[in-house]
Amino acid sequence: MVPTKSRIKVAVIGAGAAGLCAGRHLVAEPARFQFDIYEQQDDVGGTWRYSTHVGKDEYGLPVHSSMYKNLRTNLPKEVMAFPDFPFENCDGHSFLHHTEVLHYLEEYAKNYDLYKYIKFHKFIDNIRPLKQEDAPIEYAVSFSDVVTKEKETYIYDAVMVCNGHYSVPYFPEIPGLNDFKGLLIHSHDYREPEDFKNMKVVVLGAGASGIDIAIEVSRVAKEVILSHNTPPKTCPLPDNTKQEKGIESMSKSSVTLIGGKHYECDAIIICTGYLYHYPFLDASFNVKIGDQHISPLFLHMFLIDYPTLAIWAVPKLIVPFPIYDQQAKVFLKFLKGKVELPTPETMRAETERDFHPPFGSRLQT
């Protein structure tokens, strides 16, 4: 049931790209929406806000950003921008340094006057539904100030979960992983190549970050093994870098690859991606997180049993900023009653078909 109030109160979790986009569309309709954006860091940008910290930040919380010092986008700015806010010229470059993307998000927040709606240094402890008979569901959002530790709870009509999924590293289960005595890190904690000078390095994973980090590290390392189980990459690699199969096991100072090859190494960089992580969602929501799969979500977004709560940025192979923009528009139209969701039974059936083609999710307008 959608909210029946003339002015709908919305909580936005996160002030990264998705959260700022949510705010941009909420602020455009002040007569219909009242909202707060919650952000645990001290400024906007989410994962685009580079930090030299690894592990814990200055407040003892896990470091959110996975940016490394020299990262550039793997999407051109011409397709990456929000539809109504193009990037600046950026000296004619298409593939931007992460600092330019952060600057873009800061300017986006300023342009739409979003800073005054953002509650910085706020850590979300819990979001729980408040069921009321014959009335739309409300949500209790409980949070702590990361500086003062003061706790508060506010009530909202809807929640937009925009905390992203590039902050909690995924470590595969590899025999001997904990026995390795060299330098072992996840790409989440990688910052600059100099830490691997003159080392023999194994990079596990050949996604965008794995390839990028392997090439970057090769400039200072003695040797780099790009270890993965996907088809061999056809791009030219540095002379001291070669591709091999994935890791089968580890020992104190070496790896054994699938197929039996054995390599002595000084460092291993795990580039195997990230976990979807929503620890603040109350158990009563019954959200299930499987192998890169969150359920029950309709259109990979609406929580089926509580559709006035939606999760952003679940799909992975997307052009993120434009998708966030479309998701925000659809969700707010739903809150205003301008689009109607199918029945829960139909949503579950169509969600199941999303993972078993042919596809066919629909909204009713």
Give a summary of the structure in a few sentences.
The protein has 365 residues and is α/β, with parallel strands linked by helices. Helix content is 18%, strand content 25%. A 5-stranded parallel β-sheet has the order 3-2-1-7-20, with helices on one face. A 5-stranded parallel β-sheet has the order 8-15-9-10-11, covered by helices on one side.
Give the integer mean of the pLDDT values.
Answer: 94
Q: Choose one word for the global shape.
A: globular
**What count of helical segments does DSSP give?**
6
Compressed to H and E, one letter per element, the order equals EHEHHEEEEEEEHEEEEEEEEEEEHH
Strand order within the widest beta sheet: 3-2-1-7-20
Structural class estimated from helices and strands: alpha/beta
Distance between the amino and carboxyl termini: 16 Å
Radius of gyration: 22 Å
- Report helical residue fraction: 10-25%
What's the total number of strands?
A: 20
Q: Percent of residues in beta strands? A: 25-35%
pLDDT under 50 segments (min length 5)?
A: none
User: Tell me about the biggest sheet?
Assistant: 5 strands, parallel
